Amino acid sequence: MYLKHMRPYQLKEAVTLNYPLLVPAGCIETHGPHMAIGHDTIIVEEICDRIAQKVDVVIAPSFDYGPTGYALGSPMDGTIDPDYTAFGNHVKAILKNFRQMGFKKTYVIIMHQGMEAPLALAFKKAAAELAFEGILEQGYPRGWWGNETLKNKAGSVWNEIEVQPMILPAASPPAGGDHAGYNETSFLLATCPDLVEQDKLDQDAPWYCYQDEEKNSWTANATHGQIMVEAVVDAWIDKISTC
Ligand SMILES: [Zn+2]
After folding, report:
1. pLDDT tens, residue by residue, 64-109
2. I need a labelling partner for 15 at 20 to 30 A (CA). Which of 110, 173, 178, 200 fits?
């Protein structure tokens, strides 16, 4: 189910039934001459859509404009980099609203720059702050964690919002990352083939398109992409189902 499509009674039902909330987070960043600049968000959205076909989840509207650090081009090349403080404040405010909607478990899913980069850290920082602040807002007194009864009553407040890579360890291999190379190009070929034009690759293509003699942006293919997609989706379903 897509949060944007839900009517209030459906939201209430989803919350009552403890459906987890999936939050795709990515960026707008140049991905070589052959790929859509929104890849890193689009691929997470595609994976979330496939997860939702197999288990009950709610998919939030994506965070599209994450930090890039202009490591790969400027706005004229198709890369956007926001003000990090503003982005972090925005992230925290929206995550807080998701919790106020009643979602008990939220997974922020990322396929961009790794889990110690500004995008993932913005979500991790917001999640950590909300965990501490939320317990006081629920009426627990200062010093609650030092009181064993209150600590046990509060339960696990630290895991309500998880920030995770799209490719969970269980999916790798076969799934792997790169930038617009064999793996990412294959991911997009398997999910949104209209957004890839491999005939735009030529000798001027950047280094990251040909990291490997055999496995590169030219030889990327939907078959490899599909194998990765299935592994990634299966790993997520395992994780959500055993939570
Ligand atoms: Zn990418």
Report:
1. 999 999 999 999 999 999 999 999 999 999 999 999 999 999 999 9
2. 110
Long-range contacts (CB closer than 8 Å, 24 or more residues apart) made by 4-12: 4/61, 6/58, 11/101, 11/102, 12/102
Helix, strand, coil percent values for the chain (each to nearest 5): 50, 10, 40
Q: Is 161 helix (H, G, I), strand (E, B) or coil?
A: strand
Q: Give me the residues near ligand 1 (ion), CB cutoff below 5 Å.
A: 39-40, 184
Phi and psi at residue 81, to the nearest 5°: -130, 120
207: in domain: no
Q: What is the CA(163)–ligand 1 centre distance, in A?
A: 18
Alpha carbon separation from 208 to 77, 83, 131, 152, 212 (Å, rounded): 15, 26, 39, 50, 9
Q: Report the CATH number at residue 161.
A: 3.40.50.10310
45 in a structural domain:
yes
| In-domain check, residue 159 | yes
